[in-house]
């Protein structure tokens, strides 16, 4: 787990015997605090957040995207670029109004009515995120949807965030356009640790987050990794059972997620010995991203 000296947490590796190498498995709550020091900044009472780029993609039927820096999990199949693991090396700070302006400009140019905060973990700087949502709420008639993608760690550990999000992403108020996509990476302790690089005792955090969103009346759905290369049927059933215990209706809108072999994911998977997925030979795509990996 992260030491008190705040040594950097990059991506998970395993030794020749198949055991995680230090500092893994990590504490995602401690990693949240550590990462915030790098990606969140307060200036003149405004919270700025690091982003690497703003662009449009075809998911969600076409959506403008703010690509955030830094995360509090270390999933071995993560597609995000090196800004996840070296947040100090990437991105620039933007205020909520600057993020909103960039997204609106993309929407206008591309004739889009949807936007999101994605990339790594958008909830790391809650005041910043809520600042963006407040601006979206003021111009709600310009949006069909505004998506916040999250792993749930901050929602689980900071109880007031769900109620704050409900102001802008309410399943009870049709005037709001916000919506939360919460990813659940594991439904059993050992599998959670293996997939996220986080200690197994933190398995409950995403489920606590779901409960908080449900109780607060937030508009949300859950994305569950069901890819058979990472998730057994037993684990899938355990995940769905826990969601049903919160409320059975949550299961109606579950997004079942399979994982694509993006280049950064290939490097991370090889580092934990998943040659069954990446193969024995390092591909050209892997070599390309390895050349761009920052040095310690």
**Rg, please?**
19 Å
Rounded mean pLDDT is 96
SSE order:
HEEEEHEHEHHEHHEHEHHH
Span between N and C termini? 19 Å
- Largest sheet at a glance? 9 strands, mixed
User: Which percent band covers the strand fraction?
Assistant: 15-25%
Unreliable stretches covering 5 or more consecutive residues:
none
Q: Any idea of the CATH topology?
A: TIM Barrel
The total strand number stands at 9
The level-1 CATH class: Alpha Beta
Q: Could you say what the CATH architecture is?
A: Alpha-Beta Barrel
How many separate helices?
11
**Helix coverage percent:** 25-40%
Assign the CATH superfamily. Answer: Aldolase class I
| Net shape | globular
Count of domain modules = 1
Specify the structural class.
alpha/beta
Model description:
- The chain is of the alpha/beta class and 296 residues long.
- It has a single domain (28-257), classed as TIM Barrel (Alpha-Beta Barrel), CATH 3.20.20.
- Helices cover 36% and strands 18% of the residues.
- It has 11 helices and 9 strands.
- The chain has helices at 28-39, 96-110, 126-138, 153-157, 160-166, 189-196, 205-216, 233-246, 263-271, 275-278, 284-291; strands at residues 40-43, 46-57, 63-68, 92-94, 114-119, 145-150, 178-184, 220-225, 255-257.
- Strands 1, 2, 3, 4, 5, 6, 7, 8 and 9 form a 9-stranded mixed beta sheet that branches.
- α2 packs across α3 (126-138) and α9 (263-271) crosses α11 (284-291).
- The chain is globular and about 55 Å long.
- The mean pLDDT is 96.
């Amino acid at each position: 787990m992260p030491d008190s000296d705040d040594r950097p947490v990059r991506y998970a590796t395993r030794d020749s015997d198949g055991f995680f190498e230090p500092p893994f498995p990590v504490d995602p709550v401690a990693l949240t605090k550590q990462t915030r020091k790098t990606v969140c900044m307060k200036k003149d009472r405004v919270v700025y957040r690091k982003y690497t780029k703003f662009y449009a993609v075809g998911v969600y039927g076409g959506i403008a995207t703010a690509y955030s820096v830094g995360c509090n999990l270390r999933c071995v199949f993560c597609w995000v670029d090196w800004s996840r693991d070296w947040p100090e090396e990437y991105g620039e700070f933007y205020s909520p109004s600057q993020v909103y302006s960039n997204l609106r400009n993309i929407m206008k140019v591309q004739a889009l009515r949807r936007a999101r905060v994605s990339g790594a973990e958008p909830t790391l700087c809650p005041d910043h995120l809520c600042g963006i949502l407040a601006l979206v709420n003021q111009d709600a008639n310009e949006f069909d949807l505004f998506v916040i993608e999250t792993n749930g760690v901050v929602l689980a550990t900071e109880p007031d965030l769900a109620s704050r999000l409900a102001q802008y992403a309410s399943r009870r108020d049709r005037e709001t356009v916000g919506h939360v996509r919460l990813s659940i990476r594991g439904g059993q302790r050992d599998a959670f640790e293996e997939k996220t690089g986080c200690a197994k005792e933190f398995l409950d955090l995403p489920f606590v987050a779901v409960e908080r969103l449900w109780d607060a009346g937030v508009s949300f759905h859950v994305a569950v990794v069901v890819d058979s290369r990472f998730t057994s049927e037993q684990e899938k059933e355990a995940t769905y059972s826990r969601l049903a215990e919160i409320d059975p209706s949550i299961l109606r809108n579950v997004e079942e997620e399979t994982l694509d072999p993006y280049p950064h994911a290939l490097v991370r998977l090889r580092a934990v010995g998943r040659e069954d997925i990446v193969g024995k030979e390092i591909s050209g795509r892997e070599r390309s991203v390895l050349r761009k990996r920052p040095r310690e």
